[in-house]
Amino acid sequence: MTGQADIAARLDRLPASRHVWGLVVLLSLGGCFEFYDLFMTAYVSPGLTASGVFHGPDKGLFGLTDQATFAAATFAGLFVGTIVFSQLADRFGRRAIFTGSPLTLSSSTVAFNSATYYCGGVRSYQEIVMMSSIIANNSAPSADCVDFFTIMPAGGTDNLISVMASNMPVGTIIADPKLTPLADRGGPTATHGLSLSSPAVDTGNAPTGIFTDQRDVGFSRVSGGAADIGAYERQFGDDEIFYGGFR
Ligand SMILES: [Ca+2]
Q1: Which helix (H) or strand (E) holds 155?
Q2: Which of 61, 147, 200, 225 could serve as 135's disulfide partner, Cβ 3.0–4.6 Å?
Q3: Confidence band (pLDDT; 50, 70, 90) for 243?
Q4: Residue 40: count of CB within 10 angstroms of its CB
Q5: How close is the Cα of 46 to the center of ligand 1, in Å?
Q6: How far is ligand 1, taken at its centre, from the CA of residue 98, in Å?
């Protein structure tokens, strides 16, 4: 009977020949494409298409469809990141690099996502820094992580989470952000607006150098007394009934 240790020892005894190295390279490339296909395009793209971020067969950036641009740019980024930054992990150690590379969420809205396993909103095993972001109205089977879960330090300010979690940035508002239904409110994608009575209105902060909300030109990042929490900024003159979603 052959155990895993025997198999590993057998592999270690293989001569470092051209043929063996060729097999290693081919298996690595196969694994790279397979995992990329499984974890990125298979799961992420349908969601982005359904939410209106990808625009079907239309040609966009680089003259490619949105899906093709996403796949190509992410793939290129993986290679560049691996070649350039893997040396940092070799030099300083993987634990130090992972700990020093926190997940950052800034002026973002993560809402109305659902999961059948793990977390409906944001689940992180790395340190997370959240700035002026909403995580709300998500659903998941586990009460531990409806909206948010992390076992690492969570920093940042001016955030709103709808369901209490055990480890959140200090000062996080726990409340219903009163998001309005997904609709075309300008910009390239549909958005969830903010009701006038939303606790996210005028309680966020604007990142340095960011002058618009997610809809881009024509939609100021700061309107009223201060920036709103999340990706959307209520604009002066927003129709109270339409934008308020009758809430
Ligand atoms: Ca505002």
Answers
A1: strand 154-155
A2: 147
A3: very low
A4: 15
A5: 32
A6: 35
Q: At 244, is the secondary structure helix, strand, or coil?
A: helix
Q: Rounded to the nearest whole angstrom, what is the distance from the C-alpha of residue 93 to the centroid of ligand 1?
A: 43
- Separation of alpha carbons 7 and 144, rounded Å: 40
pLDDT at 131: 95
**Ligand 1 centroid – CA 144 distance (Å):** 32
**CB contact set of 117 (below 8 Å; sequence gap of 6+):** 141
H-type helices in 51-202, by residue range?
66-92, 94-99
Q: Note the pLDDT of residue 1.
A: 56
Per DSSP (E only), the strands in 148-196 are: 148-150, 154-155, 160-161, 173-174
pLDDT at 165 over 70: yes
pLDDT at 245 over 60: no
What digits encode the pLDDT tens for the residues 190-230?
A: 999 999 999 999 999 998 888 999 999 999 999 999 999 99
235 neighbors 222 (Cβ within 8 angstroms): no
Query: Angle CA(139)–CA(108)–CA(44) in degrees, nearest 5?
Result: 60
Average pLDDT, the chain: 86
